[in-house]
Amino acid sequence: MAQPTQSLTKPHLPVTINTDSLAERVRGMITFRRSTVASVASDYGATLEAAVVVGAVGIATGIGTSAAVMPTLGGVLAGWVGLAAAIWLMANRFLGTPTSRESFMPLLRTVGYAQAPAALSLLAFIWGFGPMISTLGFAWSLLVTIFAVRYTAQFGYGRTSVMVIAGGIAVNVIGFFLTLMTGIDPQVW
Fold first, then answer.
1. Which of 170-176's residues contact partners 24+ apart within 8 Å by CB, and which partners?
2. How far lies 160's CA from each of 2, 44, 61, 69, 136, in Å?
3. How many structural domains does the chain have?
4. In a domain, 124, yes or no
5. Which tens digits make up the pLDDT trace of 120-177?
6. Most CB atoms closer than 10 Å: which of 34, 157, 160, 168?
7. Residue 87: inside a domain, yes or no?
8. What's the chain's Rg over C-alpha atoms?
9. Cβ count near 5 (within 10 Å)
């Protein structure tokens, strides 16, 4: 008798987005819930949701800073992927241990969701308090990113903080040269 063959395809990625799940995950991420980080890291479908979160941050940043929305959106998306790639590279090559091998996609998802507090930059146009609120949003986003990466990569807070801050610096330095050449500014925090 013939044996059934097993498919080696990747899990089906949903094209639809559950807004209730997205809102609950954003709420869980910005309130530093480990269960939310684990849920986002393990859900293949959360990649599109993370892109939506980052896209909303890009639109809010463009509106709040009175910048062109489309280039700002492109810059925020490029910064998101660049930051996740820099963290992944450091986690696997420089700061990892022989037994730690991190996958890129869980980091991409959790870093994307961690950008949610940066949407407070929508209020940056308000005279006086706007820039302070925007700065608070970016600082909050940095802390959520460190929290999310810490529980995704399973490193301590010291090593995770170094990876996240060094990744942000790397993206900003590369972004400076990319901006000079193409006009696209990858934005992180």
1. 170/82, 170/86, 171/79, 171/82, 171/83, 171/86, 174/82, 175/75, 175/78, 175/79, 175/82
2. 50, 23, 26, 31, 21
3. 1
4. yes
5. 999 988 888 989 999 999 999 999 999 999 999 888 899 999 999 999 999 989 888 8
6. 160
7. yes
8. 18
9. 6
Q: What is the DSSP string of 75-111?
A: HHHHHHHHHHHHHHHIIIIIS--TT----HHHHHHHH
In tens, the pLDDT along 59-85 reads 999 899 888 888 888 889 999 999 999
Distances (CA, A) of 153 to 89, 95, 102, 160: 12, 11, 6, 8
Report the C-alpha gap between 167 and 164 in whole angstroms: 5
Give the residue numbers spanning the domain of 100. 19-182
* Residue 187 counted as domain residue: no
